[in-house]
Records
---
Amino acid sequence: MELLSLSAVELGKAIKEGRTTAVEAMEAVLSQIEKSEEVLHCYITINKKKALNKAAEVQRRIDAKELTGPLAGVPMAVKDNLCTEGMLTTCASAILANYVPTYSAEAVSRLEKAGAVIVGKTNMDEFAMGSTTETSAYGVTRNPHHREHVPGGSSGGSAAAVAAGECFFALGSDTGGSIRQPASHCGVVGMKPTYGTVSRYGLVAYGSSLDQVGPLCKTVEDCAVILQTIAVPDTKDATQIAREDTDFTSALKKDVRGMRIGIPGDYIGLSPRKHGDLSSKEHGEENCQEYSHGERGIGIDSQVRESVLRAAKILMEQGAVVEEFDLDLVEYAIPVYYTIAAAEASSNLERFDGIKYGFRAGAKGLHEMYKKTRSQGFGQEVKKRIMLGSYVLSSGYYDAYYLKALRVKAMIKKAFEQAFAKYDCILGPVAPTTAPKLGESLTDPMKMYLGDIYTISVNLAGLPAISVPCGSDSRGLPIGLQLIGDCFQEKKLLQAAYTYEKCRS
Amino acid sequence: MAKEYETVIGLEVHVELATKTKIFCGCSTEFGGRPNSHTCPVCTGMPGTLPVLNKKVLEHAVAVGLATHCEITRYCKFDRKNYFYPDNPQNYQVSQLYLPICQNGYVEIEMTGRDNEDALSQGQREETFTRKIGIHEIHMEEDAGKLFHDHGKDYSLVDYNRSGVPLIEIVSEPHMHSAEEVIAYLEKLRLIIQYLGASDCKLQEGSMRADVNLSVRKVGTKELGTRTEMKNLGSFRAISRAIASERERQIELLEAGKMVTQETRRWDEAKETSYVMRTKEDARDYRYFPDPDLVPIVVSEEFLEEIRSRQPEFCAEKRKRYQREYDIPQYDIDIITNSKHMADIFEATVALGGEPKKVSNWLMGETLRLLKENGLAPEDIRFSPEHLAKLIAMTEKRVINTTVAKEVFEKMFLEDIDPEVYVAERGLSMVSDEGALRRVIEEVIASNQQSVQDYHNGKDRAMGFLVGQTMKAMKGKADPAAVNHLLKELL
């Protein structure tokens, strides 16, 4: 049995049925790490001995029938901004180079209770600020599909580890696309749940009102199972909602008959006013070129567009009603996001001051210590966002920037509400292009920021969205399909994604 | 010259709420304890932790707001106040700026005498009159930790036991004009909050702290002068002195043709002077914004109703009721009701059968004496009403005499012993048994022939001496009436 080709759920089943063991699974993952990690660098921390010991302990509990869940014995990776008790948690920052938490994040604890075993902590953009995993203080991660390209970000290490077989699934966090975009770039499934579905307790905060923890995995089924395991009411997070509809696996049905799916013309670069059945339209190469340089669907790659529309067609063939519509305010999502996320980050990151934990620079007095610690401890991108955030919250600017951004955020949410009055889900690309080359984005930050255009508004509106692989470009770089649902409608997304996944193969 | 100036004062009062646990985590709020022993990842600002509001804090804040005639903000939020200082583990304090829980209230204070205009406007010719002191807002926030600076060391230490202890800040309008009014206002707040059980309000221990905002202006002018804020006022005495000193300082500046600068000053009680902490120029930009980790609080009608229904009988109502129900002097009523705790003990003891006058006597006499001797406040009284009721019953039933009762009471005051058990164990019961008494008195008469002689010669003092000797021989436990009676008979 080729263990690494199994999905997390398939592996869990094989372990449960005694066809393999948690230890064998961990050994398979570790030997894959042995082969590919030196080049890919998916992880910041790997503790092989601890992982094997834990796998053996879990296997004993499986044998004793104490652990019977679908994820028992399955090796998982954890993004390095989720706290793990007794295990280094750096947020890919030099300022937390030596930080070992005294407690585990709620999502991590839930999975460990279900018998999943931590392989290690994955690389990411520093404090989740970035879209390529290149802002990490611990080196870049390479895309397993093409090593000259980035894996996306900020959960790039998690996505690459899943794609490379260096774990069976991973946890990531998504503030503006940080799960969906790397999932798309690495050809895996990634989901950002409705804000408040998964406890944020133990997730080192970036933009608190936007952050959500979610899975990166091989299949839609894995996604449903993992989400079901971590979407548990937690009184330690005041922003979490106690949901009772978390039987997500019940949505794994190959059926989209009658499902209403809308494609925002603004996302895909279609004619703005033409609504109706897609099958009656021509989507020629020329047309596409025209729009990709026009105002709408800014910078969308033609191959990405074609793959996404092909996916829409498959769903339509399965009985979904697919039509094009106008989703307003898309162009405002990026400035609103960078105002709100940076504002929250500037405050959230104040605690990293060299006093209590983490890196401390040598200095004479308190204020010099603060300055040196933070100047040396944080990377460029983080400092840029702290400054931006401090600026928009300053007295005299608060109303003009922060408050205005909150108002536009509310308008964006309303635009989605109107769309969901008509559609069960919204379909579009995850990112306008496939994974960029290493180094490309850092020289053109505006391009990197614009790359988040399709994912960011989802966080602003607190919606759930899933990224599912839908093909590759000519260089073999994966393309992701994004399905966006109304609040608490993960099941619809899972059902549509599951149907698509089954029909594509 | 100074008389031409009017002082205008507003107060910011911080009150530590009497909750068992902290405002955003389950750690104990108990005072003291080994440094950092009452802490957890949340109140030490560990990465990834989140605050969850302690509902008790909201209940206390709303209760104080209702008792001070405030409007309760039905949709309120917490904001972050950002500033770097090591006593604050997150480098922001969770507080309320934009939508504080209570707004636009007032308390009434009673003043005597001098403010004739006000007295006249109240339709009273002299003596007491009532003033309304406006409350601008009350907001909820968290306390910070405590820093320890060791002289000669190149480091400081921080204790986060106080970090996250719940506070309310009561911000008054600038409606006060003298130290007397300020103290009356603080006393009134203290009384209200103690009655609510929301805090013990001890200035000395820091569970109530007041910052004084003060400006002066020429009498008759309407505009406010430039104000300063005075911090570090640890007692009513310090507040009075700081007000006098700051008023004088500002008047001197103005008289010398200088301007008062808006600044924060620190009172030095030992030197009886203040010095500048921060001027307006180096005022911090706190970059306040709504805390995204805490959801907005929606105060429902049911919640308000529940708090309203739990509001206690406040001091003024209690005084009126005491006048109706108990035959005790007004002076006693005032003293007893000035402390919720003492009033509770009084009422509970009466409910257990203690005669109001007797209960009041114990409180007004021995209790106040012992409090004073031990440097304690009425809130520190530890003996239970049950024990006081027993003690009163024992004296009434003549089980012990008053001398013994006082001795037992002192023990009770210090250790809350059960007087019945104590008296039984030590055999302190009064001896009125004739046989036993007769034997002792016969001995006293036999060994004090001179006094017996004196008595028969009509010297009254001899009788007292003989009674004293008998009591001494009985170790104070004899029934004085029986001793007198028997002595006369045997002589």
---
Amino acid sequence: MPTVHDIETGGRPPALEAHNLTVSYGTTKAVDDVSLVVPANKVVALIGPSGCGKSTLLRCFNRMNDLIPGAQVSGEVDFHGQNLYAPDVDPVEVRRRIGMVFQKPNPFPKSIYDNIAFGPRINGFQGDLDGLVETSLKQAALWQEVSDRLGSSAYDLSGGQQQRLCIARTLAVTPEIVLMDEPASALDPIATQRIEDLIFELKQDYTIVIVTHNMQQAARVSDYTAFLYMGHLVEYGPTDMMFTNPTEERTEAYVTGRFG
Amino acid sequence: MNTGVRRHFNEELDEVQANLMAMAGLAEDMVARAFDAIQLRDRGALAVLRDMDRQVDDLELTLDEQVMELLALQQPMARDLRFLLSTLKISNDLERVGDHAVNLARAARKMAKYPLLQDMPELEEMAAITRSMLRDALSAFTNRDVSLALEVCARDDEVDNLRRSLFRILVTRMSEDPRAISPALEALRASQNLERIADLSTNVSEEVVFLTTGETIKHGASLPDHEGSEDG
Amino acid sequence: MSTDPGRDRRRKWAGAAFWALCWAATMVGIVALMILLVDIIMDGASQLRPEFFTSFASRFPERAGILAPLMGTLWILGLTALIAFPVSVGAAIYLEEYAPQNWLTRVIQVNIANLAGVPSIVYGILGLAVFVRWMGLERSVISGALTLSILILPVIILASQEAIRAVPLSLRQAAYGLGATRWQVTRHQVLPMALPGILTGTILALSRAVGETAPLIMIGALTFIAFTPQGLMDEFTVLPIQIYNWVSRPQDEFRQIAAAAILVLLTLLLTMNAAAIILRNRFSRMRVR
């Protein structure tokens, strides 16, 4: 049984609630009966050893697992009181409101402007596109570096800049929640630090769930940390408690680096 | 520098510094009031100082938590790491300064019951030096001033000498006049507390040297000669 | 590691011999091609007068021209492109993006791959039965184009599937993550990126179709006509057929104009292949790095 500590939601409704989520590929369960609450405007980190199911769990939150053939998802994910896996829910709409940033920066082979404009355009945005592009780039702390070359190819940017572009692209569709799957693991330490600073800024306006295999990063960046092992949720609580005084022995073994 | 990279962490470090400065301010103030209480024969000072000591203790607990959290979650290195470790030790020292100041106030209250002992210039001088040592140690911490810190360490011997001569003087007085025994003992206690405060000021200075240069001068070690090694 | 000078020398000789063998193999192809080319040019270059391109076929070699077959080839080329391209690309998109991963899809996939290897005359028979007779399109340009389209369909489908498959998953995921529907992902991300590969495959397939003779003979392309196609239902002929016809005449002069026609056909093919290569190179610079 997982140890789940009290999660302060500050009196506000949580951004997401997962109930008994299970994801199986054939007979193997990648995620096994996980329930947790993601409070609004906080950063929740999912940590655990390789293959523990943290990325799979993350993909449950925006129904990206639907795109993986053979993946079966059971359980509920409640967003604004509605179960995202109800039969009448359109996954496309879900993904507009719950965005995702991936591990390796994956800008489109278009200009910087068109990268950011893509999301709003396909969602039928009618307003000031230029303004939206500028706002998104500013939110991603990239505006100053690229404002004079919005028409140039996204591939001319460095890795760290490309990842911030991907973040801006995600923000352009104004999601409520931003899911990040190891967003800095392909970047050098300085670029990583800038992404972490950015996450800290973003949580004022968004809720962020981040998967990371680097637990020091989870310690630096998150408010709450969930430790998963072999698909099970082992412990979930405030980050400072998880790293200074966890309850479960397995958690302690993992954060002190004595795992395995 | 609170812009750009690791702004959040820098802000947290600033908070720790601010709390430590608050503790330092309280400690200095407490020592000043305590010795004034002795001179002015103020029996009410003890209550005030107890209150201030509670604040100092609260700050120590707050700093303990803050430093632990920063060490666990932010992986501080180099100067940041030395700063946080020094903070733990300095806050511990300052807490004890507070306690000793309370003891001084107790001594002041007891001494006030008796007729004034004849002038004890040694005690006054001890108090003056101790107060200046504490003030300079804390100033050295604020400004990361290594030379000032070293000066403070050098003055510790003076205080020790003064306590020893005060001891001899008071013993003489006590043997001459039995009515002087009680106040003299209190004066002795006061001098011991002052000496402890001076020692603690020396500790703080040693921490400042460690924080700034990474070298330790505790327990008689001396600062190695580097060329232009003193960091800002 | 002990050095054995004898073995070292043998290794060096073996390496050199292998290199020489590969070089010789390459040269065989190039030399054969050069000989052919030089022979054709020597035969036909003199016949490439402007009248050659504007006259119709004739019993007299000095008055014969390739106007009819040239126009026929161009018509067939254009129509085949118009028919084959959308159908093949549509099939490729369906197979790659929409088809469920079940046994039926696998069967379809295997069949398409096999169809690419069927001899072209079989398509000619199919075209004759279905388009000329059953659909009553007679021996017209449209029958020819439809037959050739079916011939090159598998080739374009396979090439398009490859191009679509080459679009990295990460790009699709990014687009899905922004709330795009499957069609939006296909239209805005996959197709633009796969297009160079699809076009290259299409052009190469078309250049094969241009050289096809047997299926067109089967559906009844004529050899001796004195008009150019004006509408879809018109009769026609193409360059390869005309060349075949001239080559089988006894007179030497006909061989010369046949060589000239071959040169025209070769030029057309080379141009198309060059276009395919240029396209591929130009767009490969924009590949995902």
---
Amino acid sequence: MKKNALHIILSLLVILAGTTSCLKEYLDRAPEAGLSDSDVFTKYANFKSYFYSVYNGANFTLRAHYPMWFHGNNQKLTLEALTDMCDMSRIQRSQPGKMGDGSTLIWAIGYNDESASRTAKVSYSWKIIRVCNTAIANIDRIQDATAQEKEDLLAQAYFVRAYCHFELFRLYGSLPYVDKVLGANDEWDLPRLEDVEFCKRCADDFQTAADHFKSAALMRRDPVSGSGHLAATDQDKPNGVTALAFKGRALLYAASPLSNTTNDPELWKEAAAANWEALNQALANGYILLPFANYTNNFYGTKYTDEQLWAYTTGSTTNYNNDRVQAFVGYPFSNNAFSSAQCPTQNFVDKFETKNGYPLNTEADRAAAVAAGEYNEQDPFKDRDPRFGAVVIYNQKDLRGYGAASLYVNEDGSLPTESLLRKREGSTDGVSETFYYEQKRTGNLSSKGEQNVIITDPIIRLAEVYLNYAEAVNEAYGPSGSAPGASLTAVDAVNTVRERAGMPGVLSQFTGSADAFRDRIKNERAVELCFEGYHYYCDIRRWKDAPAIGRSRLYGLRATKLSGGATSAYPTGFRYERFALPENRQIAWKNDGMYYIQFQTSDLLKMKNYTPNQTW
Amino acid sequence: MKLKTALAIALASFFLMGAGFSAIAQKASPVSGRVVDSAGEPLIGVAITVQGASAVGTITDLDGNFTISAPQGATLLFSSLGFQDTTLRVDGRKDIVVVMQEDSELLSEVVVVGYGVQKKESVVGAITQVKGESLVNSGMSNITNAIGGKLSGVTTLQTSGQPGENDAEIIIRGVSSFSNSAPLVLVDGVERDFSSIDPNEVSNISVLKDASATAVFGAKGANGVIIVTTKSGLEGKPKMDFSYSSGFSSPINTPKHVDSYTTMSLLNTAMMNDQLFSSMASERVLSEYRNPSSALNALRYPDVDWLREMTRSFAPTMNANVNISGGTDYVKYFTSIGYTYEGSIFKGYNDGKVDSGYKYSRVNFRTNLDFNVTSSTLVSIKLGGNVGIKNKPQPQDGDEGMWKYIFGSSSAKFPMYYPAWVLEQVPDANYPQDSGDRLISEADQTTGNPYYQMMKGSFIELTDTKVFSDLIANQKLDFITPGLSVQAKVSLSTYYKYSTLRTEYNRPSWYLDFTRLDEGQNPWRRTGDTGYYFVANPMYTNADNVLQGGYYLDLYYDASVNYNRTFGNHTVTGLFLFNRQEQDKGSDFPYYNEALVARATYDYAHKYLVEVNMGYTGSERFSPENRFGFFPSGAIGWVVSEEKFFKPIKKWFSKLKFRYSDGLVGSDYANNRWLYISEFSKDANGYIVEDKGANEYVQWEQARKRDLGIEMAFFDHALTFNMDLFDEHRDKMLISVDNNTPMWVGNTSKELNKGEIKKHGIELEASYNHTVNQNLKLFVGGNFSFNENRILYADDAPFALSHQRKIGTPLGAQLSGVYMAGDGYLSSVDDIHSNILPGSVSDVVIGDYKFLDYTADGIIDRDDLARMEGSLYPPIAYGFNFGAKWKGFDLNVQFQGYGQKWVIYDQMYQWEFYKGNYRTHLSSLDYWTPANRDATHGAVHYSASSFVNMSWSGYNESATTGGYNAKIMGQSWRRADYLRLKEVSLSYTLDGKAVKNFLGVKSLRAYITGNNLLTFTDLLEGDPESKYLVWGDYPHMRTIKIGVQIGM
């Protein structure tokens, strides 16, 4: 009896011990519903679907950084509108920012994730960086992809990670460089890096991306010619040349005065070398500067071109009446009350040289040009840089659907019948105050012009690489120098870009010294890259030119139709007068905080180790 | 009989085994006899020992007989659970009859602890208990309310008096966690809902408070544990107990009616304050409200006391229970059936098919059987449960709607309904054939017409079924080593909730437009005609048993080894237990838990006590590495009064005991599950996205608790005094950290184990029993508890303004409140101009609140919102009772109170013309004027949207409209301390032979109980026990019942 009981006890204990060992199994349960971590990362199709959310996801999108417009409560603005380049015909959102109230821009630029606009650069970027880091960490888990497919994904992940960091840097200044998935036990309160270090981290990632693209044989995604040319399935995704070009851009920013506070020439040299490499690889892979006749294909009318190192076509815009177009096309063209338009200022128009290369930037410049018989203030649009016609709608320009653009007033102050300056009834805004409109991005798209235009965001194109190279070389080696091993001088590079537009080389009086040539490079960048994104906004900041520009006056050019018709003094029959824009459309530099956009307060409250930018 | 005798002998022989030799060694002679109770029934299993020779002993057999060898002149000690110890000198007698006196006090000498019972004297944990009897005597049919005030450290807050939905929220030792402070509730050792249990089935309720008592529950014990033990049969003749009581409930602390004349006059004042002069009511109109000039005008200018019109003064309530218990040596049984009914205070609508009243009836049943299968094998079967049927109307805004309408509808805006005569006076051209009463549309109203909502014919009947079943087998293994036993248990609990009947139609309703009547047009408008939904021919719908949320199935099983043995002065007990639990709650993925539990106790001569507890518990909610938590605790006790040096004073200082415990307990509660897994889903564009970052290290929250207890008794336990000092440090609480997650994390993360809180407190209990003489006994008792907590870590943004941080505040505090400056009101034009206002000067009038610029930065904005004193969870709780027994009379009075309690006191009480409604409450009438400087309310306003006062108040629900959603200190956040006469019971019992002969019953007891008879509070309106007095709740009830109890 006692023995049996002992057996019972023993077996009970064994059972208990047995259950103990399977203790963990009992609890080893997880829901079967939904996608598990391994579903996502072991199958190529799922992995790709996870990673490609960075381009086209519903919750965040990289396109927040593509050449940009902003939109907030029907108040459109672009970053160019915060500079002296243009004036928004509706002023609500942009003008307070332009005049030094940074708080009005915080939401529109960094946090607007409303479905219509989705320009929340800040929150989207960090979400995308997390996706990239997750992809990089999990790339080896894919079971069913080719080595090339994996290399491609990895390359894109490094590229996009660097791209987001860099785009945030351009607007917000240096940040922590987040190169891993921040988990529950990681330190979250990170300090910002030094600018140069930050840019170099971006450049390193761009280089890593380029290396992987190279392994994947994806220096470009489409064949250089023949079937599939400019029409790869992933044409809108970056490639190896894009990565090298972005590396060049990142190092150029690192070397620029705002970041390169000690004016370290080595940084310029690195930038020169990187841009030479990018240029070289671009040319080797069949990228060209389009002939000027096809220049506008880079922006509209065609999906992709051989000049775009990376671009995103938004497809055919069948209706002028959408948010995107409303940020570029003014009320008179769209008949939409909420449309705003980028209206070039006279300050910007003056950047277009005469066709023989005479600058018109300053009064002295213009006097010299007049003396040389190159320029007549009363016939100001004649014989200008050919790009002027591609960018600016000016008085009497031949405009499809409108004939000669009526951008003038009558002598009695009244507006002609077909005036493009007529305000919407009952409204005080919505038309140009400068007597110019901009058409580089949309061409003739309007209610009376073309109503169906393919629009493409040129994120980076070959012309910029020439100019990036020229700028770096000029600083490192002078106007006639070149990067080690390079066949192109700084002057050559600038002239290559000018030549395509039908412009002569930079006049010799400006190529003698780095200082003299620097101004022409800046002018060339403003002209060539205007309205394509926010090059100019960033350029004047990295050059630290923005304070002076912010303290200048903005002008328009009033055209008055003379009842007496053309005279010798007024050969066009119009009187042209420079005039300062009204006070509520002027620009200001409040303080050096304006170099960067601010983060919203609730974000700043979370980051103790991060030194915030000065508020403005 | 033979088998039984054999079993009894076998049982006895175990006791004798060890004792045999020594007994033989002494010169002893056999003594035999019989042990009976006061009624002459034999007592079985009474332990008999020879004093001074503890090893010598026997127990009585099934007929109460015993034989023992005892030396001449020895004294025998008889002891049995539930009876007073009895001693007897042998003195050469051979056949003796010993009568043992029942000792009801002694029943409480056993304390239910986790997975077992302990003798009270050797308990070292902080445990308090209440007997089922006192719950029955309370008169309350909801057990969660019946325990209120009776247990130190236990807070019960009842927020609604609605029949079937009047459970109290129970918290032990104060609120303690961000995620969940609800204690673990066990019924017969298994996690179960106890709120609908019949108090008649309950033997006792034990509340485990410190780490020593709760560590065995590991990751489920941190919030304290309530163990409900149901009754079991005692061996003896069948006893039948029948009770019936019935009475009335009436609502208490309801808002007072403000008549329509007063309302309209106040509205005029508000209009005037807002410069809306053209909208003011004229004197003629005002006089119509006071004295309508015609019957029709009485409808046009009504004065409706909604609560009075809608409700009766009383709702019926009824309780009945019959239970039978008893047992033989083979089986012991307890079986009980109970019925409870709580009726509606509403007049309601009842056409025989549709019944829109509130009511609740519940049938409880329980059968507990204990089988002595062999002398060492006990098999217990417990089967209990209840079926509750709840009926309630379905007002438009859901459950809270009816009270929203009653507390929110104006006395002045519309009458209850249009009586039939109206149609005769004012014919309806569109429906000329119509006759009879017409219901009134609540169109144009914010809150709706309560009468229409009640009469429109929508109701729901819900049936709620709970079944608890347990099968327990216990095998003593004394033949291996005495005191060893094993036990296995399987329990199944099921919960179903069905909607059994339901209608959802709206009877047509009407609006009589008096302006159109004046213009000679057809003034009637039927809601259905202007696009409102209604069904012309109401259909009675059988809801066909639609399963509701809350379906729940809980399977629990455990296996344990127990050891309990005394060696001289040394008593050792041990427990090792393994359990598993699977809970299937509705469509949730099942919850799995398992645990290994161990306990060892050591008791030296009831003097020095040591206890070690351990829980090793696992939950599927956590990451594989952190699934199991180890929760150890230890406790020591010193019963000073057992020391020799204490003897001189023990005569009056009967007991002095110190105990101290320290240990860890946890809580595995999580608002969200699978926190350790990243979840992925497809976004609207078809791309895969991560939903929230995983907390791969997720684990249980952890509480370190310490408790120092002092127990004292004086004058032979007539006066007792207990004190507990405790503290707790709880960390790893799961909290959302969105406020702390910097943007570059790139995603929000699931809750992290970061919350931290500390808490300390004190509990006092005292009781005094005084026996004046045999006929008169008096007693008084009370308890007091105080606890306070501070948040040590919460998700405050690192740079958050210090006065807006959660850290350093108590849990339940209001963080975004605004203080008033000075005396609180803008008292002059100068005041308006010299004070900082949240808006412009033209926004305010004299008498408006004067807000404090907390940051002193010259503007009043969000930054001035600051945390406010007080917490929703009162830190001070107390209860006291007293009573007397005189002959057959028994009186018991119980009070319960809370100190430093606050309520959210909003909208209906504070914003009289909220969204254009005309409802006023007493508080509005006390508005500030130069003549009423001690006002409790600011100037009245009508157009809430433009008023700064309103936007401070929480009037603006939507942040985008610019509201601050803040509380105003002292106004919308009010002190609600109260003391309540919770129960009074008076009974008279007849028993003894006369009753038996005359009535044929053993005892007859008649009683009267009263609950919530008096409430002492400074709160102007509403019940202070509530937490949120925003719209009003179904009122608390004052209940008076008379009953009779017959024992047979």
